[in-house]
Amino acid sequence: MSGAGRDALHEHTLESEPVFEGALLKVWRDRVELPDGSRSVREYIRHPGAVVVVALEESGALVFERQFRYPLQRAFLELPAGKIDAGEDILACARRELREETGFAAAHWEYVGVMHPCIGYSDERIEVFFAHGLSQAARALDEGEFLEVLSLRVDEVEQAIRAGRITDAKTITAYYLALPRIQGCLQGR
Amino acid sequence: MSGAGRDALHEHTLESEPVFEGALLKVWRDRVELPDGSRSVREYIRHPGAVVVVALEESGALVFERQFRYPLQRAFLELPAGKIDAGEDILACARRELREETGFAAAHWEYVGVMHPCIGYSDERIEVFFAHGLSQAARALDEGEFLEVLSLRVDEVEQAIRAGRITDAKTITAYYLALPRIQGCLQGR
């Protein structure tokens, strides 16, 4: 892998302006200079970032949710996730989202890594955590948030991915990133 | 997994309007009725869909690209991918993108499945293809498109994912979705 690519591929910002400020989405439009000196326009979402949690229950199952995702007009099977509040620590965010959405607290937390879900038109990053040693706490959904909590064994997750019943890329990515840790926990029992 | 969730979670559209039409991004804002009868607003990108190609070379390596992704201000290691043109067949799109971006044609194509990269605020789907039996054809990048083509062995891909040098979720997801087919091809040699 060549390290020389970064400079040769760089796009230089000439001008940057917000062009849409919605309740949820903020769109920016930048004028840029391309590597060959020509000019172009880039439009993209600025996003505060998010976390996703791979939470292993004592039974050996993972905590999943079913949530209606409006842009696609259907419910998705996905891992617990949520946006990072302004100034919020990412681990604090992961603890908060797991508790609010599923009612679980976890004794053990491990940072797994980061993914970028939508590099073509969003600066969103999603920080992945692995949680185990779960206990029931109080669930506290955000206003206007509706979801079902369910448990899927590792073999059920694999089957659901292979069969196309799980298609959410953050869930598939987080699952495979965390799989060595899941297997380590399951083998240690 | 309960099938009853779909109706219980459904959000009913009251009104739908385009609120931003950029050169690249189209944002819609809908007023919706939530499952409890309360009302809310959903903003989301309408996207034409995309393809991503896991292409296996005769050497046993996978075809990768390094491309500058402006929203994140850096180059990413990723699999060849691109947007579906209006009315374009998804396999035709996969063939076109592989050839235009990397210069490879492939004798064998297999459909792997679909992923959704950004279910919170985009209706984008990404169709995953596995290609093998590669031969060199003519590369023909779109105007204003700059990228480097490189080859990564399967063990190098795994290492790069574990080390955080590959963080693009479509690439990680497509790799794991296609992995049984990659292994089948490599074992058949």
CATH class of the largest domain in chain A, anyone?
Answer: Alpha Beta
Count structural domains of chain A: 2
CATH topology of the largest domain in chain A: Nucleoside Triphosphate Pyrophosphohydrolase
* Oligomer kind: homodimer
CATH-level-2 architecture of the largest domain in chain A:
Alpha-Beta Complex
Net shape of chain A: elongated
Structural class of the secondary elements of chain A? alpha+beta
Instruction: Count up the helices of chain A.
Output: 4
Radius of gyration over C-alpha positions of chain A, nearest whole angstrom? 19 Å
In total, the number of strands of chain A is 10
The overall pLDDT average of chain A reads: 94
Residues in β-strands, percent of chain A: 35-45%
User: Spatial order of the strands in the main sheet of chain A?
Assistant: 7-4-9-8
> Biggest interface in this structure?
A-B, 72 and 73 residues
CATH superfamily annotation of the largest domain in chain A: Nucleoside Triphosphate Pyrophosphohydrolase
**Series of H and E elements of chain A:** HEEEEEEEHEEEHH
- Biggest sheet features of chain A: 4 strands, mixed
User: Are there runs of chain A of 5+ residues with pLDDT below 50, and where?
Assistant: 1-6
How widely separated are the two ends of chain A? 40 Å
In helices, the fraction of residues of chain A equals 10-25%
